[in-house]
Amino acid sequence: MRRWLAPPTPPAGLGLAAISYVVVDYLRHLSPTWHERLQPALWSILALIAVSRVPFYKHWSSEFRAAIPFVASMLFMLTCLLFEALSVRFVTAVLGLDWHSDTSPLPDTGQWLLLSLNEKLPETLVEILRARIIGLHHFLMLFMMLAFSVLFDSVEAPGLGLGARYMFTMAIGRLLRAITFVSTILPSARPWCAAARFRVPAYPHHWAQKYYVPYASDANAIRQIINQDIAYADTGEYLGDYQPDWGSMNFLINFLRPTPAEGASWYSLLKKAGGGCNDLLYSGHMLVAVLTAMAWTEAYGGCSSAFIWLLVMHSAQREIRERHHYTVDCVVAIYVGILLWKMTGFIWPAKDSMRSRRLAKLERIQSRLIQAAKDSDMDEVRELLKEVELGSQESQNKGHSKHLWLLLLLLVEYK
After folding, report:
1. Is 279 helix (H, G, I), strand (E, B) or coil?
2. Do 40 and 146 fall within a single domain?
3. Please, which pLDDT band fits residue 183 given cuts at 50, 70 and 90?
4. Where is the Sphingomyelin synthase-like domain (predicted)?
5. pTM of the predicted model, to two decimals?
């Protein structure tokens, strides 16, 4: 009996498209000539197929309903990204470039493990682990492919609803990340990075000069400040910072510590912040990768989701191997991304939650439903179907009742 109630197997087209995209894009490292030929051809084929499906798309009403949450989620994400950029600049600038270049990286057992494996694994496997197969833009593009696959009924509509959930979850993750790394400033795994990328003062901000520097390396001074619970050291005169005229945004000067060479615009300065140089717990790249994998697994599933998770793991070990992040950054990003995606499911329910409740209710009453159908008691059939509809509290999609009638006919025919 259950064979009629089993969910349909998703078509393999989306998985093949995802694998093709990753393989063709990696050709840029193996054969740039073939990459230049195949990548435009692949995108043209995918775009033409997608456009050809637009006239036959049946879920425009649900897409329009999801448009407002989509725009709101996008604005929320942009706001969180602005806060993150401010925080990146602050943690880079507050201690000065001397601190970045003189402070040793933290000990990282994950880095040691990967170096040890390099000595034990076959050279071919090590080269695969070192290869730059997947990057941040790949995961973003894979999610775009997932969202647009609603045109082919590969995932449940609306695509804008899936995009809204993705951006909303991303925004929360980026906000939590900024709050985390701005709370305790950690040294970079690449000590030369800040001097090569940023033009911040070499000396610390006066906050650090007063509350951190006098007690940073002397154990007795640390013990004394714990006992007294007050900043007791005499720091003398503070070195003054450059003070541009930012008008109403002058309050940002103490946080961003601009230099004359960086121009008079606070916005232009933030655009240069990039991903920062000191360690930013947790990894933003890994958060994007995990959210893409979670969205893919929930919305599409199948063997291709396992492929996406393998790419996530490959990306994680590369982040550690190339010392863009410490191991803890990648580990925390993985479980935070999973938990955040699960949490936002309360706002954007999983694709089959309503259907699963209806089918569970239908299974409970199926014997009564079959008997009523065999007795040609259509009033009883209607009452039972109404009970299923009310029990699932689903009223948005009028096609659901048709699905229930179809299930009924299949059950009666099978009986």
Report:
1. strand
2. no
3. very high
4. 276-343
5. 0.80
